[in-house]
Amino acid sequence: MSIQLISTETDYDAALAEIDSLMGAAWGTPESDRLEVLVTLVERYEAERWNIDAPDRCQALNAS
Fold first, then answer.
1. Is the pLDDT of residue 37 over 80?
2. CA-to-CA distance for 43 and 41, rounded, in angstroms?
3. Backbone angles phi, psi at 8, to 5 degrees
4. Residue 6: exposed, middle, or buried by beta-carbon count in 10 A (0-12, 13-18, 19+)?
């Protein structure tokens, strides 16, 4: 299971493509384990790359 951190858009795109190919893997198989690890890495990359802060409570109330 050779998996590396996602640090570039190329890595990200490759991980998404592999996730797509693994969707539907039977639970408890090496494929589902790989899927779970890749999803975790993608979530981490997205959180770091496109972090969206929660709005200030007062701003959120005034916007409605």
1. yes
2. 5
3. -135, 165
4. buried
